[in-house]
Amino acid sequence: MTRTIRLALLANTFMAGAAAAQDVTLTVESWRNDDLQIWQETIIPAFEAANPGIKINFAPTAPAEYNAVLNSKLDAGSAGDLITCRPFDASLELFNKGQLADLTDLESMANFSDVAKSAWQTDDGSATFCVPMASVIHGFLYNKSAFEELGLEPPATVDEFYAVLDKIKEDGTYIPMAMGTPDQWEAATMGYQNIGPTYWKGEEGRKALIDGSQKLTDEGWVEPFRQLAKWKDYLGDGFEAQTYPDSQNLFTLGRAAIYPAGSWEIGVFEPQIAGAFEMGAFAPPVVAEGDTCYISDHTDIGIGLNAASPNADAARTFLEWVGSDEFASLYANALPGFFSLNSNPVEMENAVAQEFVSWRENCEPTIRSTYQILSRGTPNLENETWNASANVINGTETPEAAAERLQEGLASWYEPQQN
Amino acid sequence: MAQRKGFRWHIVVFLAPAVLVYTAIMIIPLIGTLNLSLFGRGEGGRVFVGLANFSTLFGDPRWSAAFWNALANNAWFFLVHMLVQNPVGVMLAALLSSSRLRMAAFYRTAIFIPTILSFVIVGFVWKLILSPIWGIAPNMLDAVGLKSLFAPWLGREGTALTTLALVSVWQFVGIPMMLIYAALLSIPDEVIEAAEMDGVTGWSQFWKIKLPLILPSIGIISVLTFVGNFNAFDLIYVSQGALAGPNFATDLLGTFLYRTFFGFQLQLGDPHMGATIATAMFGIILVGVCIYLFAIQTRLRRYQF
After folding, report:
1. What string of pLDDT tens digits covers the 305 residues of chain B?
2. Do A95 and A87 touch, CB atoms closer than 8 A?
């Protein structure tokens, strides 16, 4: 009798073991440690409910360390099954080293436009190695309550933009625009890449720069710097030492009226403002009424498959799901300001996020001009642009000199720019 | 003929731990770095390039401009320390060793405390103090009617480096103070008494008797300052970031090395050029220390008491 029970117990253990072995656990490498809660509470349960047998473990590292940590983990063979992909060269290098698998044949890839996929493709576009997850859009956030108080309307043209800034400055209650230069990337990303596409005509200019038919000293590329130089008068006292968190706080505390922004700020700002005032958004102003507007709709985050993963089949199932409409809607609503790259429009509840995404209907989207190919050499165009934008706003370098310097640097290693 | 002694094994045994540890954590990495600087990235991995990296660093207009800029900033950083930190340290030590000073132990501790703080705390606290938006520096100047003197010092090319050098002086002034203080205390009373018998008192006693006796300590402090300053990185990284803004005005060799070796934002890291800069830094520090050891220290007079 005892023997039977023992056997039964033994059999039971084996069966339990077998059942557990069917469960595959996929580990996701990511730099988005801010999103841990959203993954654990929203995304993972939704996937696991639909796909029994596959468990997801979201394991993020700090953003600044991510690239270094991921590279060493991949080299050592200890990286997770799924790799969150930085756009362009950082991920392309991993693919070229054979560390990211080719995902071109994934069915859900059909849900994404070519622009969306361009951040995670080989230069000739023949292989795609990450599923696009989200993009961020640049524009301006503004304090609606302050605008109402001063009787202002969000500007549509460049002239209106400066007229609004002048009025806020004249009134003196608010700092017209919250931005500082010491962190440099604010000046380049929220400044140059925000208003720039209007002048270099988005994709047209960006591609012309890559094939060498335009230069950074051309009018379309210098004019954004001239505009930035004008911003100086509208920034707060001591903007030369105003850091990124300082700018964020100035806006959320209601001391500044306009904030040159990336859409990722929406999710950060709303809880901080906590209803103290109403926040609105307007697109980068156009030169003359009726001009085509251009926005920077930058492909920022994707997800790929570790080529060495032993659970490639399960991982592909997950990636198919990431490419689906269901994921797009879950993700975009959980993280207002990170917009799905899925071609099928996603319903979003957040009003400011809706405003940002509505620009896609009328405006031509482009990505940040320095990200594809042009930042491969030394000096690095993206890093140089940070420096040049900050200098121009500080008034220590003229727009023309800055453009000249960038062009020289680019031409020193990038062949299509050398003639 | 005297009987030959056996090999003195105990010497080897006693030296071994220090030699092994030092070799493992200092000598081998150092040689590794020097070696790394002789290679470059080529087709299919690492290739030997000889001194090509050095000719890029010193010959290429961009690399050399960045290098000389960092070196010049570093020299200014060092000069500020030598002109402010060390004289102030000597002065504080002289004040502390005065027998008429009350609460000397309190001052000594208070002045030394910043030295044991982390760079991260110091950088962050000073950045807040000097912030034009939330800082107390503008308000304090306003309180005495000097608001017009305030400027966003950390954000201007002309003032950022000097400001950071002074923050570093504030942090480290305790070290020269303590070393000089110890040297002053070790001067025997007989010497002081003899000086007093001869009528040498007060300031002239300090200049003629005490200062010559503490010169060797000042020499050591200068070397420590030199090595510390030319390896400096933390304070700049914490307060200005790896790009050492504005416009590289605060770029030291340390931040230049960091950016090159580990890469920054879209710039991928280049361990070979990084190692080249590290080697150049090593050479600069080596030359500086050698100048001190052979040209200065051997000429310092030693006094036997």
Report:
1. 556 778 888 999 999 999 999 999 999 999 999 999 999 887 667 889 889 999 999 999 999 999 999 999 999 999 999 999 999 999 999 889 887 888 888 999 999 999 999 989 999 999 999 998 888 888 888 888 888 888 889 999 999 999 999 999 999 999 999 999 999 998 898 998 999 999 888 888 888 889 888 988 998 899 999 999 999 999 999 888 888 889 999 999 999 999 898 877 777 778 899 999 999 999 999 999 999 888 887 777 666 65
2. no
Both structure tokens of A230: 């004008």
Helix-then-strand count for chain A, H and E: 19, 10
The tally of CA atoms less than 13 A away on the side-chain side of residue B250 is: 31
Question: Which one of A93, A183, A240 has the shortest CB-CB distance to B152?
Answer: A240
What's the full length of chain A, in residues? 419
User: To 10 degrees, the CA torsion angle through A340, A345, A347, A351?
Assistant: 70
Tokens of B102: 């009350």
* ipTM surpasses 0.85: no
Domains and CATH numbers, chain B: 71-303 (1.10.3720.10)
Contacting residues of A for B248, CB less than 8 Å apart? 387
Rounded Cα distance, B192 and B87, in Å: 22
Q: What is the pTM of this model?
A: 0.84
Contact criterion met (CB < 8 Å) for A390 and B247: yes
- Whether the CB of A253 is below 8 Å from some CB of chain B: the reply is no
What are the chain B neighbours of A63 within 8 Å (beta carbons)?
Answer: none
